[in-house]
Amino acid sequence: MGQFSGFPKEGLSFYKQLGVNNNRTWFNENKATYIENIVEPAQAFVEELGDRLRFLSPAIQSDSRANNGSIIRIYRDIRFSKDKTPYKTHLGIVFWEGIGKKMENPGYFFHMDAREGGIYGGNHHFDKSFLTTYREAVDDERMGRELSKAIKEVEESGSEVAGEQYARVPRGYDPEHKRAHLLRYKGLWSKSPTIIAEQLMSPDLVDRCFEYCAAMHPLHQWLIRVDQMK
Fold first, then answer.
1. Any idea where the domains of the chain sit in the sequence?
2. For the domain 9-229, what is the CATH superfamily, name and number?
3. DSSP 8-state code for residue 195
4. Is this model's pTM higher than 0.90 or not?
5. What does the alpha-carbon distance between residue 161 and residue 177 come to, in Å, rounded to a whole number?
6. Element (H, E) at 144
7. Which residues in the chain show pLDDT less than 70?
């Protein structure tokens, strides 16, 4: 596997064209372009950024295999969707930490489409056991203060902290709790500043993503502690 040198312009163009030709015939005719300009650079990206992330946390996992590893499949699950287009028009790459399913663990997630990209850190959606433990941790005075501190550090670095929330504080907790807004989260993540197309095509992308991940790491560390409390 070669050294990562940026995602080629042809890779971004592939996603743009796929957006208007999202059908099996077009994809099969252009699959070689997808492999050469998306999959192969993504594999090199996984190897290099995965190695770097383990300096932050040795237990972070990555897998550069094209299927069932860090690189999310391009094929959409259309069984229960009104949108029957068969392919995703973006690239997703996951780096995870924990023993559960990779998408249910705290970790980092790289996203790229035809125009821009970004990297996320945290949990997009808490499973039931994690959600229960998360709420207990937010309610705990020491752990709750440490989460507030971690969020402040991440936001001061220039990253956004967000997540889908319930409309109300969960039953069993004081609606006037001083961390009520944190109790309402059902997923909590940080998002880097936007990575523009020119940066996606640069070999410096790995360095840029690592710097963003390092800045978001306080939230990742806190979520890992919660995961270990389950």
1. 9-229
2. Protein of unknown function DUF1054 (3.30.930.20)
3. E
4. yes
5. 20
6. helix 141-156
7. 1
